[in-house]
Structures are given as C-alpha cells and as structure tokens.
Specification:
homodimer, about 230 residues, alpha/beta, 8 helices, about 40% helix, DNA-binding
DNA sequence: TGTGATTGTCATCGACGCGTAACATTGATG
DNA sequence: CATCAATGTTACGCGTCGATGACAATCACA
C-alpha cells in the first residue's frame, strides 16, 4: 500500500531531493515542473497527496490549488504547500483555498515526511480528536468509550484494548503472539490460548449489535478485524 | 467573541506560523518565548487558553504547567501541550500535570485549530456569566451554587469543585491523579484513594435527583462524567 | 471557645475481570 | 470417512480494584 505523492516544483534539484526522500520513506514519487504538467499527471494517475510549491512559473501554486479543489477528480486529494519564509504572512490564502498544511522552506526532509504522514493519517479518518470510527463502531479514546451507532457498549478493560487495537489496525491478520505483544504488552507472559477467550468475549459484547462478525478467524494464522462479513 | 491564545514556544518560526493560523481562525494570539515571558504575559492579560511547548529553554513546559496549575490566576486556564515525538512518557506526565490535551509535532495548523476549539468548547458550557449547564444540572459559579432543575442542591466545598471540574470536562476519563491535580491543586499531597471517597460523596449528594449515574467508574482507569448512562 | 460541618485516611467487603483448564466443535488432510 | 489439529465455548478460582462506612483531625462560625 505505497502512497503516491505528486511533487509540483519547478526547481529540479529540490524536486529530486524530495523524491529521493519519499522513496526512502517507502512512498512513490511522481513529479511535475509546473501546473500544466501537474494536471496531466493527476489525470493519468491520481496521487494520494500533492506537494505544491507556492511559487511556480505561469500558474501559481495557490491558483493551482484552487483549481484542483474545483475538479471532482482532485477535490479530495490532500495538499501540502511549500512556501519560502516571508511568503507565509502575506499570501496565505492557502488555508482558504483548502490547503491541508504548509511547510516553510528550508525544511528538513525528515520534517516533510512527518508532515506528509500526519496529513495522510488525518485524511484516513483520524482527525486527531482521538475518535476512531469504523463500520458502525465508534471508539472515543479520551472518554474511554465504545459506541455502536449512538448506544454505549459496555466493555471491560482488556476487551477495550483489544478492540481499540483492532479498529486502528483493520483488514489485517494478527497472530496470537502479535496480539499478545500489542494488546497485553510484551512484558507479561500469558498462554496463547487466552487470546481465544478474549476474542470470544469481545464477540459476545459486540453480539447485541450484530457486529461480532467483524472479528474474524483466519484458521492457522490468527484473527482479523474487518468491515465485510 | 475573540479568544485569546497564548503561545509559549521558543522557535520563532513555529510560533509565527501558529500565531498566523490562529488569527486566521479569528483568535487573538499572544506570544512568549520562554516560561518567564509567559508568566509575565499571563499576569498582564489572562488568556483563554495556553499552547505550551514541551521543550523550553530554562524552565521546561511541564514544569511551567505545574506552576500555572498552582497559581490561582492561571489554575482554570486550559493548557494544550505541544510535544515532539510524543511518546507514552510524555503523554502520561503531561496529563498528570493537569494538561487538558496535547498535540504531537508535527501537526497541521488545521488540526491544531480543531483541538483548540474542542478544548475551549469543553471547558466552556461557560458563557462568561459563570453559569454552566449540563444534563439537568446547573452550576452558578459566582454564587457557588448547584441546581438540579430548579431545586438547589446542598453541596460541600470539595464536592462542589469536583462537580464543577466534571461538568466543565464531561465525556472524558480522568485518573485519580489527574483529578487530584485539577480539583485539589498540585501543591497538596493527598492519597489517591481519597478521590474514591469524594466520588462517593458526590454521588450521594446527587442521588436524590437520580443524577448520581452521571458519575461513572471506568475500571482500571479512573472516573468519567457523562450525560448518557 | 464550643459545636457542627467538612475532610483525609484506613480497614473491610464485595464485585469484577482475568487467566487457565477442560470439554465441545469445526475444519483439514489423507 | 477417519483422524488429528485448530478453534469455540464454558466454568471456575484467584487476585485486584472500587465501594463503603467509620473515625479522627481540622476548619468555620457563632
């Protein structure tokens, strides 16, 4: 699940540097030197996120951002603006244009990567409020509560942690050992079969809302949390 | 109704960026580069909320938070911690110092604004008159009185402060330590178990109005004040 | 200074959740 | 279809945590 990032930046050296950093971070880098090239690239292959230089020859970055927000195809794509110091204060209609974040030059690639990840995380349902929602289930982290629809689900500590782990790591199989490491913590030793029992208990607490089939058994491997039955 | 936000952060560029985003969002931004400047700024003009960098030259953010919690003037001001590479340690310590929320760097300005609004909203059924209302309970801050419907509720000082904190911070779990910090103040040392007793007393005073189930136990974690049973 | 209210601490009791074993069921493999 | 392995299900004992009531110290106010 490599993320595709489109870099729109006229200076080749900067573009290459960013592309290199992205690839090292396990992302796919697409490149464009101006607004026209960017739009073509997007049509050809829709990226997961766009890095947009503020200053571009011809159509400015801000203008391009506005345009992308109007197109159906590109409306939902998160945009991170790259601005030089000083440019921030005057022309920062960027936020109004629907830019998700902006990074001030010069930046470290490390910081840039971190920002990208933060924005991607947020565009995937994590709005930073500590709320996680998936398939009719909602977990309110700060409140330490679980809701099915708007009904509160009574749940014990361990089942809560287990469910929390599952809902933040859905659609993937985890072995009993992995679940023990993540949910119980590596320092304690308990039988692997104990996981089975807690899976059972979790299913039972979800049963009244017919959500117990989100917890799925993968025979010979472990368990998976998934939306689809 | 512009909210005043104090930014305590030593890095000028970050501070400026945040300040700009805040103004854009219709808030007034005050700035301070270290703990000393922060305290002076607070005395001069009390902010509605404080953004506090974890790492500060001289007095650390954590230490400053503790100090602010002890001062009468700043006890009630919500604090949002800005932490780099937020590890578990940071979170725990920060929350124990009576911090209201924390945001991990790097964050997008949009995320930060969202958090600020959330915290302000939470600590603000308060419309300025000092009246707070929630789920059939009403607190008259200036008068130091509590009403259930229109009946006055007889309540002692500590239970009053506990209830006041709860009603201004509903739908969220607080550990005993956190409650001690927020309600008792960081300067006194009392046993954690004492919280249990006052929870009990608070429940007993609310019982005649069947509101005692708003005070909820979260086993292994702490207590929560909530509308829904 | 006296009296009632308030507060913090402690000991005790009970409830709850947890881990484990024992047994039942299902699935795979030949 | 026989057999073994993997998982589902249930019951039980133990330990931990929270609830509760009692008590002594302190505070506020007459």
């Amino acid at each position: 699940m490599h993320k595709r990032i489109l870099i729109v930046e006229d200076e080749t050296s900067i573009r290459e540097m960013i592309a290199f950093a992205l690839r090292k971070a396990g992302m796919d880098a697409m490149q464009a030197a101006d607004a026209r090239a960017a739009q073509l690239a997007i049509v050809e292959q829709v990226p997961d996120l766009i890095l947009l230089d503020w200053m571009l020859p011809g159509t400015s970055g801000l203008e391009l951002a506005r345009r992308l927000r109007k197109e159906e195809l590109s409306r939902e794509i998160p945009i991170i603006m790259l601005t030089a110091r000083g440019e921030e204060m005057d022309r920062v209609n960027g936020l109004e244009a629907g830019v998700d974040d902006y990074v001030v030059k010069p930046f470290s690639t490390r910081e840039l990567i971190a920002r990208i990840k933060a924005v991607l995380r947020r565009s995937q349902g994590d709005d930073g409020s500590g709320m996680v929602e998936l398939g009719g289930l909602r977990i309110d982290g700060p409140a330490h509560r679980v809701f099915a629809g708007d009904e509160a689900v009574p749940i014990g500590p361990t089942e809560y942690r287990l469910l929390y782990f599952f809902i933040t790591h859905p659609e993937r199989v985890y072995s009993r050992t992995q679940l023990l490491d993540h949910v119980w913590g590596g320092s304690v030793y308990v039988e692997e079969r104990t996981v089975d029992v807690h899976i059972r208990r979790l299913r039972k607490t979800l049963e009244p809302w017919k959500l117990d089939d989100m917890v799925q058994t993968v025979r010979g491997t472990g368990y998976r949390f998934s939306i689809s039955a």
